[in-house]
Amino acid sequence: MAPIISIRDLTKTYDGGFTALDGVSLDIEEGEILALLGPNGAGKTTLISCICALVSPSGGSVAVGGHDTLTDFRAARSLIGLVPQEVSIEPFETVENTVKFSRGLFGLPPDPAHIEKVLRALSLWDKRSNRNMELSGGMKRRVLIAKALSHEPRVLFLDEPTAGVDVALRKDMWDLVRSLRAEGVTIILTTHYIEEAEEMADRIGVIDSGKLLLVEQKSVLMQKMGQKELTLHLAAPLADLPAALADYDLTRSEDGQALTYRYDTRAQRTGITRLLADLAAAGIAFRDLETRQSSLEDVFLTLVDEGARSTTQEGAA
């Protein structure tokens, strides 16, 4: 099956010479949730803007549902719903009319049943007659999502959808995203909340300095790059690490009550058995131990750091 979105060698350089996208290629499959992670200025919003044909790329191509976004703009754009970062809606219009108007912009006939379904899913039905200016910030963001869903798109872009939204509303949005995916909608989200990507995404893409560093299944990414930490809670405080343990990646807690050992889950041998034997030989006893798997945030920071070092080395060369 052909991907719903196909991006090839996409570049964007602005007039001042700043390169926001640098040869991005990516296929996005129908019905998946893809999370794009990256620091501020990494190129996430520019990438979305190029796919949605809001920004003209300097090179490369984008196709949505087989339609080129430049030569077949209307057909491509009709498949896309976009929820931007900025909350910008007509303040004096009602919620219901705002969403109806967005549907009409795509040349679709009125469909009160669909509008009601969208508003109910977003807990906006009881506020359908309210003017937008009367809503809280979180509810205004829900109106943006309702507008994006008004024309029944096959692809939904969520650019920082839960920025400034409280925890309860964030969870409701997560539930909505899952229900949309169950209906076959492809969802691409950018987020600064690592736990959001970890909770919802099927695949994770990491972008930095306009380059796509990696796109991988979330579970595979964690398995490939995940590390574990073994924390040993000692029977007695340890003032200093013995020289015999210098070869281990050990960190002593400030109070000397615990030792933390980091090891690679991909390695054939973790070194734990040898470590425990050497601890016993050094007369160090422990009363308890626990392990912790590295989080997606740990993996993300590692990738961005490696990407930054690579860029620096290229510039030096």
Automatic annotation (TrEMBL):
SUPFAM superfamilies reported in the protein's UniProt record: P-loop containing nucleoside triphosphate hydrolases
Designated name of the protein: ABC transporter ATP-binding protein
Highest taxon above the source species: Bacteria
InterPro entries according to UniProt: AAA+_ATPase (IPR003593), ABC_transporter-like_ATP-bd (IPR003439), ABC_transporter-like_CS (IPR017871), ABC_transporter_ATP-binding (IPR050763), P-loop_NTPase (IPR027417)
Species whose genome carries this gene: Harenicola maris
GO molecular function, one term: ATP binding
CDD domains found in the cross-reference section: ABC_DR_subfamily_A
PROSITE patterns on file: ABC_TRANSPORTER_1, ABC_TRANSPORTER_2
Keywords recorded for this protein, A-Z: ATP-binding, Nucleotide-binding, Transport
Domain ABC transporter: 5-234
Oxidoreductase keyword on record: no
Phylogenetic placement of the source organism: Bacteria, Pseudomonadati, Pseudomonadota, Alphaproteobacteria, Rhodobacterales
